[in-house]
């Protein structure tokens, strides 16, 4: 089952943009609303038949006041989740109609051992070729010691960037692209900039908990939280697979017009000195999950 987490600030109607025209009995939809009220739930109750479970809840209380609560809401959703895989969204985002079918295909395609074979056979992004041997060796060592974990990244099409819906062309003919890892301590590390960040990343739930969710330090402003997540996957030797048939279209949104927050950039630069394997939040995701399971029944519609 997939736990799909959507964070919003009062505008629960935006969740309808995800184009739920079919029933998804293997999907749990969790809406975390910063302006949650008992009355607001009536606006989305009609979505209940489309999902295995519909959860509507407020974000967890925070110990300090911050400008945003986007990541705090996402972490609350992760704590309420019960699916084997989890994905977070926010704003008005539309999934391509075959999104769930393609996602299930990718999960099947990358069973234990499959991605190492794919890594060895696939064409690599030009700036990642020099890391190939080191990356594969690190993955093999990781699998032998800890088992197997991947992250799945959909293609993100942006209305604000003048992308048109489902019109995507790639220089790479294969469906899957394995994102190269950055060996920590490499002198080229700071110059490395992935072509994709970790927005809309889909991970096994236990991986989210081991990573301690999203880094809520970035709730002071906009941007850099998705770069932070991508680097954290790298330092934990979790491979990221870009699935070019898995697409999300982002309708016009105001976040892209927000000025870059210098404080967020400073947090990211600080973390680059020695990137934390777990998000330095003031809670533990495994413990938060246990607490949310005790009260979850109160928020199921």
The CATH architecture assignment turns out to be Alpha-Beta Complex
How many domains would you count in the coordinates?
Answer: 1
Helical proportion, percent range: 25-40%
CATH domain topology? Spore Coat Polysaccharide Biosynthesis Protein SpsA, Chain A
Report how far apart the termini are.
18 Å
Structural class: alpha/beta
Percentage of β-strand residues: 15-25%
CATH C-level: Alpha Beta
How does the overall form come out from the CA principal axes? globular
Q: What is the string of SSEs from the N terminus onward?
A: EEEHEEHHHEEEHHEHH
Which segments are poorly predicted (pLDDT under 50) over 5 or more consecutive residues? 181-195
Largest sheet descriptor: 5 strands, mixed
Detailed description of the structure:
It contains 8 helices and 9 strands. The protein has one domain (2-299): Spore Coat Polysaccharide Biosynthesis Protein SpsA, Chain A, CATH 3.90.550. It is globular and about 55 Å long. The protein has helices spanning 70-80, 99-109, 114-121, 132-146, 205-210, 225-235, 262-273, 285-295, and strands at 2-8, 24-33, 51-57, 85-90, 93-95, 150-158, 176-178, 202-204, 239-250. Helix content is 28%, strand content 20%. The model is unreliable at 181-195 (pLDDT under 50). It has 301 residues and is an alpha/beta fold.
Short description:
By secondary structure, the protein is α/β, with parallel strands linked by helices. It has helices at residues 70-80, 99-109, 114-121, 132-146, 205-210, 225-235, 262-273, 285-295; strands at residues 2-8, 24-33, 51-57, 85-90, 93-95, 150-158, 176-178, 202-204, 239-250.
